[in-house]
Automatic annotation (TrEMBL):
The chain holds residues 239 to 932 of 966 of the full protein. Keywords: 2Fe-2S, 4Fe-4S, Iron, Iron-sulfur, Metal-binding, Oxidoreductase, Repeat. The keyword Iron-sulfur applies. The keyword Phosphoprotein does not apply. Belongs to the complex I 75 kDa subunit family. One of its GO terms (cellular component) is oxidoreductase complex. This is Formate dehydrogenase subunit alpha. GO terms for molecular function: 2 iron, 2 sulfur cluster binding; 4 iron, 4 sulfur cluster binding; formate dehydrogenase (NAD+) activity; metal ion binding; molybdopterin cofactor binding; NADH dehydrogenase activity.
Length: 694
């Protein structure tokens, strides 16, 4: 932390770590950032913060920052430092040559949930308008894409239904596959405050999370299910609610499609969905499941919060729909204190999805196959848009290995470290003729790149982020970009070099265009954001100041649609060779692959990833705290130190993925969600053995 002294001026901006979206005053002395002070006027954080947002900003000026563009003809050659013009010209020529040789569909790109809404919008526009295809995807593919599918299918909008403050009106809080006190600390603290006031807590997670330690009026219930059995659990909970008469019949009758409700009800009352029948699958005693279902079913206000422990499964989308079923069945939608609330991992996961990053959807989740939607965008952009959805990230990798996909533009995403089955990803990246990486550090993906374009941090640009409660917050420039260009300017330069002109002077103009083309954003502008502080979309004629609570009177699809959620066991199974199940998560001081937090003071709190293993599994293998362990899966092997802990169930091991050396994704498989291809990071069968040294 820089010696602060008295700041000379301050700028209000938004934290670039997690999906809580805390507001901070960046206090400056000359052009030096001396301190990040949580901003009391922040609508998401009300003056609170965590160790990441408050202290982990030093990476912005770290010596490892890439300060000049670099190019090379092949990945075996050393980098050559060049001017922006030369780098952009080189990249554009490679992209054009690739399309000339292999066809229009042979190139694509990936937007980032770390970047602003305006930057993300511009990358997908570049791909659709300048590349001429829909091969655009976002890193949200590997985290919350099932949220998009599951919520849109059931309640009509790919977003959380509430404000964070709404939790203060919940009398039952259900947390599924999330660890808010570590991954969303400011909101985790708010939850704790509500629990201390007496709200009841139900946690569905293989691991005993810290929230369960909160002293509160009634004891929290922990349903420690086996990894991969979420859908069995949600069906068992729904079975109790329906068969014990805990449904909200008035809500179902007035708000939901009757035929789909009947089909779901007929399915859910089957004995095979009872807690007793599912006990053998989930490993959780039926009586405990019944108790939890009664608490949620009888709650005046029951609110569900979920994280990647729901989505990163082969049945991720099914589970999201199962959660929406529960909320509809109990009438827990459309007012404060209730709802279905995905806790987004990165700062702008919600925004990157909203901005049309997916290959099948233009901004505002408008399907690319809809001729009316295309006509509106085509009129504004002056190009014709391909009606066919493009490639998802895993499809891009497969096509690269097959030799039909040859060039990729990756902005702010380290796919070589963060995507599953690293060996497969590396094989794909090595097959490309042109990989353009735009990032703030020389990351793992850059090893396979031909063009390296320096990225800008959140402190170096203007724009907006959208947090997990649909709140659009302003990001304000605090310092000049270290390499002279903001990310949106780089994308614009690349588009111009490819022959599709873009001439924005400021990100506010990009937001004006987004508002023009996106029905849920028509009322959003920088002026309004400055006036109101933040806006929760939808913000349009109907809701000029935004929408804190969604689905109050109806759903965007009219009536809510129950979905039949059949449990299907994960293909990833234990056997004698791989007898343990590995699941993954995060810790408080670090952030995702650690590219930023590892380059800050926060590193002192977490120097390495470790493998948590239950005492009984450790004893069986003669493992003690600190021992080196070899961890093998069906796709790879890595080495980690042991931490013996009873937070996990016997038979389940756990690690974080904050350090590249540990290579958790060397062992995760490429099994994925049936609907969205979101990888099944949370279920990997492994063998663990003591080794003498790494
Ligand atoms: Fe940043 Fe999230 Fe911490 Fe808030 S809770 S300061 S948004 S990391």
């Amino acid at each position: 932390v820089i010696d602060a002294g008295q700041p000379e001026h301050s700028v209000v901006t938004t934290c670039a770590y997690c999906g809580v979206g805390c507001s901070f005053k960046a206090e400056m002395k000359g052009d030096q950032l001396v301190r990040m002070v949580p901003y009391k006027g922040g609508d998401a954080n009300h003056g609170h913060s965590c160790v990441k947002g408050r202290f982990a900003f030093g990476y912005a000026t770290h010596k490892d920052r890439i300060r000049e563009p670099m190019i090379r003809d092949s990945i075996n050659e050393p980098w050559r430092t060049v001017s922006w013009d030369e780098a952009i010209g080189f990249a554009a020529k490679r992209l054009k040559d690739t399309q000339a040789k292999y066809g229009r569909e042979s190139i694509g790109g990936i937007t980032s949930s770390r970047c602003t809404n305006e930057e993300t919008y511009l990358v997908q526009k570049l791909i659709r308008a300048a590349f001429g295809n829909n091969n655009t995807d976002t890193c949200a593919r590997v985290c919350h894409s099932p949220t998009g599918f599951g919520l849109k299918t059931t309640i009509g909008e790919s977003a959380g239904t509430q404000t964070f403050d709404s939790v203060m009106k919940a009398d039952t809080i259900v947390v599924i596959g999330a660890n808010p006190t570590d991954a969303h600390p400011v909101f985790g603290s708010q939850m704790r405050r509500r629990l201390r006031q007496g709200a009841k807590l139900i946690v569905i997670d293989p691991r005993r999370i810290d929230l369960l330690k909160t002293p509160h009026g009634s004891e929290g219930i922990h349903l420690p299910l086996r990894p991969g059995t979420n859908v069995a659990m949600v069906n068992a909970l729904a079975h109790v609610i329906v068969t014990e008469g805990l449904e909200d019949k008035a809500f179902i009758e007035s708000r939901c499609e009757p035929d789909q409700y009947r089909a779901w009800r007929d399915f859910i009352v089957e004995e095979r969905n009872s807690p007793e029948a599912m006990e053998a699958v989930t490993g959780v005693p039926a009586e405990l499941v019944r108790k939890a279902a009664r608490i949620y079913g009888e709650a005046r206000n029951g609110a569900i919060y979920y994280g990647l422990g729901v989505t990163e499964h082969s049945q991720g989308s099914t589970m999201v729909m199962g959660i929406a079923n529960l909320a509809m069945a109990t009438g827990n939608l459309g007012r404060e204190g209730v709802g279905v609330n995905p806790l987004r991992g990165q700062n702008n996961v919600q925004g990157s999805c909203d901005m049309g990053s997916f290959p099948h959807e233009l901004p505002g989740y408008q399907h690319v196959g809809d001729p009316n939607v295309r006509e509106r965008f085509e009129g504004d952009w002056g190009v014709s848009i391909d009606p066919e959805p493009g490639l998802r990230i895993p499809n891009m990798f497969d096509a690269a290995i097959a030799g039909t996909f040859k060039a990729m533009y990756v902005q702010g995403e380290d796919i070589a470290q963060s995507d599953p089955n690293t060996q497969h990803v590396e094989a794909a990246l090595t097959s490309l003729d042109c990989l353009i990486v735009q990032d703030i550090f020389l990351n793992e993906t850059a090893k396979y790149a031909h063009v390296l374009l320096p990225g800008s941090t959140f402190l170096e640009k203007n724009g907006t982020f959208t947090n997990a409660e649909r709140r659009i917050n302003r990001v304000r420039k605090v310092m000049a970009p270290v390499a002279g260009m903001e990310d949106w300017e780089v994308t614009m330069a690349l588009s111009n070099a490819l022959g599709y002109p873009m001439h924005y002077q400021h990100p506010s103009e990009i937001m004006d265009e987004i508002a023009r083309l996106t029905p849920t954003f028509t009322g959003v502008s920088y002026d309004k954001l400055d006036r109101l502080g933040s806006i929760q979309w939808p913000c349009n004629e109907e809701h000029p100041d935004g929408t804190p609570t969604m689905h109050v009177l109806d759903f965007p699809i009219g009536r809510g649609k129950f979905a039949v959620t059949e449990y299907v066991a994960s293909e990833e199974k234990t056997n004698r060779k791989f007898p343990l199940l590995l699941t993954t998560g995060r810790i408080l001081s670090q952030y995702n692959v650690g590219a930023q937090t590892r380059r800050t003071e926060n590193s002192r709190w977490h120097e390495e990833d470790v493998l948590e293993i239950h005492p009984s599994d450790a004893e069986l293998r003669g493992i003690h705290d600190g021992d080196w362990l070899g961890i093998s899966s069906r796709v790879g092997r890595t080495v980690l130190r042991a931490k013996v802990s009873d937070r996990m169930l016997p038979g389940v091991v756990y690690t974080t993925f904050h350090h590249p050396g540990s290579g958790a994704n060397v062992i995760t498989t490429d099994s994925s969600d049936w609907a969205t291809n979101c990888p099944e990071y949370k279920v990997t069968a492994v063998q663990v053995e003591k080794v003498t040294q790494p």
